[in-house]
Specification:
Number of domains: 1
Structural class: mainly alpha
Number of helices: 3
Helix content: over 70%
Amino acid sequence: MNRPYRIGSALVLEWLFARWRYPLRPWLAPVLTVPLTGSCLASVHGFAQTPHLLSTVAFPLVVAFGFCLFTAYRLERQQQQSPQAEHGR
């Protein structure tokens, strides 16, 4: 997965994650982030007239979904640990 796409995915994911307070937030954020950023990736490849567009974009989207799940899990754990750290003082 290229660096700008990974950074864009992480920014969108963190933005969504910070604004939602749902119990399914670690799953919903990646499910919405990957199609949003993936459509941008597919559009760029479409404008460039990349041959075999679906096979070109499919693997990065699968990797992006795994990356977004990992990032959402990490953000969820950080948020769960931060109130505990404040109570420990």
